[in-house]
Amino acid sequence: MRSSPDRSRAKIKRRGFAFEPFRPTDAPLPLSQLDADPREELLVFERSGERRAVVARQMAYHHTVQGDLAGEPYLVSF
Amino acid sequence: MLHFGCSGLANGLAVLSDEETWSDWDHITGECFAGPHEGRVMDWWPVRITTLEQARREQPGLGVLISSYRSVVERLVERFAPRAIGGEGFLPPHFRVTMAGRVDRRLDGLRNGLGVIDGGQARFYPMDRVPAAGLEDRWADRILVVRRRPDGVPYAAWKGGGEPEMQLLSRWYGFSFTWPGCAVVEGDESER
């Protein structure tokens, strides 16, 4: 049975985000053009057969990436 | 449309808020637990974590979203973020004060594993106990097969086809706080 967080112990801002959310506006970079260590970790998500990736280290800061993919909204959290 | 971001911590896990109402949402389950949207639950589906090397082999046409945001904090987090796949990880002290109680002692809190949720049931498969040949685990009248991909990440699928409702790579503390009392499956044995 899942459990909801105990808000009495939580540290949550009443307004405003602790980290800048990632809301992509640029076209995705082709994987072949990504200049990074082969061990670089990626989060891969899919909507209606179309896939995108984000860099896990960038998501360690942003915590969320949100947008539209294949005409459907998505929210990825990390 | 609601617009989300991380607004804090609960149980050492990120809490999301929407900037329209500042309601608080569990980032793993997608459930709103406080605020005007309390009780709402987002649809969820698994996200896969892999390496660039593996992605180039399997999905060479993949597009990568790159953030151009820069700040001192962002640089520090990117520089020191622990690896999710097999990395030891660390828990900053300020994470612990947000925990509702002690971490379930059946495993070390930072132990990495595959959490699987289906039909209201949750099980955790420690990554280092998934054999190279994979393991089989009975769920009621079905058998779940847990294997490792070439990138080392475990993944689960039903023996007859299909995948469970949700699976995620997770540290034990986060999974056990979200699904208290979940079963832990090590090797071919279940510990319930």
Task: Describe, in plain words, how this protein is organized in 3D.
The complex is a heterodimer of chains A (78) and B (192). Chain A has 1 helix and 6 strands, in the order E-E-E-E-H-E-E. Chain A has 78 residues and is mainly β. Chain A has a two-stranded antiparallel sheet with strand order 3-4. Chain A has a two-stranded antiparallel ribbon with strand order 5-6. The longest helix of chain A is centred in the C-terminal third of the chain and has 7 residues, at 56-62. Chain A is globular and about 45 Å long. The mean pLDDT of chain A is 93. Chain B has 192 residues and is mostly beta strands. Chain B is 14% helix and 36% strand. Chain B has 4 helices and 14 strands. Chain B has helices at 52-58, 72-80, 93-96, 172-178; strands spanning 4-10, 13-18, 24-26, 32-34, 48-51, 63-65, 112-118, 121-126, 135-139, 142-148, 154-158, 166-171, 183-186, 189-191. The radius of gyration of chain B is 18 Å and the shape is globular. The mean pLDDT of chain B is 92. Classes of the chains: A mainly beta (78), B mainly beta (192). At the A-B interface, strand 1, strand 2, strand 3, strand 4 and helix 1 of A face strand 1, strand 2, strand 5, helix 1 and strand 6 of B.
What topology does this entry show?
The complex is a heterodimer of chains A (78) and B (192).
Chain A: E1 11-12, E2 29-30, E3 41-47, E4 50-55, H1 56-62, E5 64-69, E6 72-77
Antiparallel strand pairs in A: 3-4, 5-6
Chain B: E1 4-10, E2 13-18, E3 24-26, E4 32-34, E5 48-51, H1 52-58, E6 63-65, H2 72-80, H3 93-96, E7 112-118, E8 121-126, E9 135-139, E10 142-148, E11 154-158, E12 166-171, H4 172-178, E13 183-186, E14 189-191
Parallel strand pairs in B: 8-13
Antiparallel strand pairs in B: 1-2, 2-3, 3-4, 7-8, 7-12, 9-10, 10-11, 13-14
